[in-house]
Design brief:
The chain is mainly alpha-helical. It has 14 helices and four strands. The strands form two sheets. Strands 1-2 form a two-stranded antiparallel ribbon. A two-stranded antiparallel ribbon has the order 3-4. The chain has three domains: 35 residues, no CATH class; 155 residues, Cytochrome Bc1 Complex, Chain D, domain 2 (Orthogonal Bundle); 130 residues, Cytochrome c-like domain (Cytochrome Bc1 Complex, Chain D, domain 2), CATH 1.10.760.10. Helix 6 crosses helix 9, helix 11 crosses helix 14 and helix 13 crosses helix 14. The termini are far apart.
Length: 357
């Protein structure tokens, strides 16, 4: 892509698809739609969003605007173990920078060494998720941010105690007053942590660079893997759009290998029989950083995941109809994994925050 074309694309992305449709050519419309993942393609007779670039504008609710002081406060709270009962378990304890903002353990460890029932999902790109947690029980990042505080196997604290503790820390009292104009509150804690989490974005991967016109950004293996991803391997049926997720819930027949004897997933939220054993489709961006995989950490490597999906998933009475044996060759599996590796975003600069005494 030449510099003039890149400049045109940048302008189109800046002003949005709405602007493009006002008198632009069909070719320009297709270009922007493909770059932003808005163009649809046909896979197995189903029209779905194509994969593409993330939006240039980050979705932020009008009730919780992001700005520097709030993000700084949220980062401190994210790393502060004092939100937990024993003062040791912070958000970062299970969603760790340098480890894909996830947890390399199969299931996370909470207060008193208690084990959770699910693998801690990454914080990467949660800003683009309409619902949070594997079962989608939280409708916002604000709601998600304070849920673990009262979970008995995670932080095992109460909201009231957390607010009291932080109101006795002068540094937090001053920051809450500056940011929110109030004393420490649970609402403020939720909004600050969510504001920080909205800055954790995996982007500018070799795939993104390839889409923008650098055809050397992805290897030939990865390019062939992308064709498989959108075709024979059928991955795009669920991992579609700019964030490589349909944000829906599917039963893949994943074996239950964690401490829970049975996990009904989305059913706990909706109580609909068809949602039994269904879990949210995770983003695939920077997927190589966030092992182990699946809701219970059943698979340690991407190779294990690909083999499982190649077999059509596991046996389950509620298995998604999208699950079919794929008959991938060893070479095709290697190409597919090469493409998944090309979804690794650029490194996010990180500096541990200074916590108020």
């Amino acid at each position: 892509m030449n510099m003039q074309k890149k400049f045109q694309v940048a302008l189109l992305l800046l002003f949005g698809v709405t602007f493009v449709y006002q008198g632009s050519s069909i070719a320009q419309q297709e270009l922007v739609l493909s770059l932003t993942g808005k163009r649809t393609i046909d896979v197995a007779g189903i029209r779905i969003p194509d994969i593409g670039l993330l939006p240039t504008a980050i979705p932020v609710p009008a009730t919780n605007l992001n700005y520097k002081q709030k993000i700084k406060l949220g980062k401190q709270l994210y790393f502060d173990g004092r939100l937990s009962q024993n003062g040791a378990i912070s958000c970062a304890f299970c969603h760790t920078p340098g480890l894909g903002f996830a947890d390399p353990k199969q299931v996370s460890i909470g207060v008193g060494g208690k084990q959770g029932g699910r693998q801690a999902p990454t914080i990467y790109n949660t800003v683009f998720n309409p619902v949070q947690f594997w079962d989608g029980r939280a409708g916002s990042l604000e709601e998600q941010a304070i849920g673990p505080i009262v979970n008995p196997v995670e932080m095992a604290e109460t909201h009231e105690n957390v607010v009291d503790k932080l109101n006795n820390i002068q540094g937090y009292v001053e920051q809450f007053q500056a940011v929110f104009g109030t004393a420490v509150s649970m609402q403020g804690i939720a909004e600050a942590i969510a504001a920080y989490e909205r800055t954790i974005i995996s982007t500018n991967s070799p795939f993104d660079q390839y889409v923008l016109g650098d055809k050397t950004a992805m290897s030939e293996k990865a390019q062939r893997g992308m064709d498989l991803f959108k075709g024979k391997a059928r991955c795009i049926l669920c991992h579609n759009g700019s964030n490589f997720t349909d944000n829906q819930f599917h039963n893949l027949g994943v074996p239950q290998v964690g401490p829970m004897k049975e996990d009904l997933g989305r059913y706990y939220v909706t109580r609909r029989p068809e949602d039994t054993g269904a879990f949210k489709t995770p983003t695939l961006r920077s997927i190589d950083e966030t092992a182990p995989y699946m809701h219970d950490g059943a698979f340690k490597t991407l190779e294990e995941v690909v083999d499982f999906l190649d077999n059509g998933g596991g046996k389950n009475p509620n298995l998604s109809p999208m699950m079919k044996p794929l008959d991938l060759s060893k070479e095709e599996k290697n190409h597919l994994i090469a493409f998944l590796m090309a979804l690794k975003g650029e490194e996010i600069p990180f500096e541990f925050p200074t916590l108020p005494e």
